[in-house]
Amino acid sequence: MPTVIYYEDIVPRKKVIGPSVVVDQSEMVAFAKIWDPVPIHIDEAAGKAAFGSLTAPGVFILCLKQRLLHNMDKMAAVIASLGYDEVRFHKPVRPGDELTLVVEWIEKRLSRSKNDRGIVVHRLSLVNQNDEEVMSHLDTILVRLRNPAS
């Protein structure tokens, strides 16, 4: 069970290295066949011709990021996500790549309308085994306060 961190625990500009996952080809292709059946994701010859190998769909990469986020040792007391911004896929993700989650707290402010929460922006990235950033996005979240103002 992860340790819960509250609004008060979040330090802007602090980076946290999260868990890693190895991209499983059969899982990636099965996902792509249902959700993004583009040849570069499901056909080895097409993937090899275009990028040197099969590549993962962006939605699959986001799902891997979410899996890693929920497997962190410490998780923010998130009430809700208010939305993603600046979603980028910087490099292809391939079967066998090892992806590591990096969380950087960007900024925070107290909610003006609810005294039990704050608004936090964090940047979530996946970095491959070559220390190359393959995906990143900003996420604005509502986070519980440990000690809400009365």
Please describe what this structure looks like.
The strands form two sheets. Strands 2-5-6-7-4 form a five-stranded antiparallel β-sheet. It has a two-stranded parallel sheet with strand order 1-3. It is elongated, with a radius of gyration of 17 Å. The longest helix is centred in the middle third of the chain and has 12 residues, at 58-69. It contains four helices and seven strands; from the N terminus they run ββααααβββββ. With 150 residues, it is an alpha+beta fold.
Task: Note the main attributes of this structure.
alpha+beta; 23% helix; elongated; Thiol Ester Dehydrase, Chain A; 7 strands; 4 helices; two-stranded parallel sheet; 150 residues; five-stranded antiparallel sheet
Top-tier CATH class: Alpha Beta
Average of per-residue pLDDT values: 95
List unreliable stretches of 5+ residues: none
N to C succession of SSEs? EEHHHHEEEEE
For the termini, the CA-CA separation is 30 Å
Total count of domains: 1
Second-tier CATH architecture = Roll
| Tally of DSSP β-strands | 7
Alpha plus pi helix count: 4
CATH topology: Thiol Ester Dehydrase, Chain A
Structural class given helices, strands, pairing? alpha+beta
Provide the helix percentage. 10-25%
The description of the largest β-sheet is: 5 strands, antiparallel
Could you state the CATH homologous superfamily? Hotdog Thioesterase
| C-alpha Rg (nearest Å) | 17 Å
**Strand order of the biggest β-sheet:** 2-5-6-7-4
Strand content: 35-45%
How would you sum up the global shape?
A: elongated
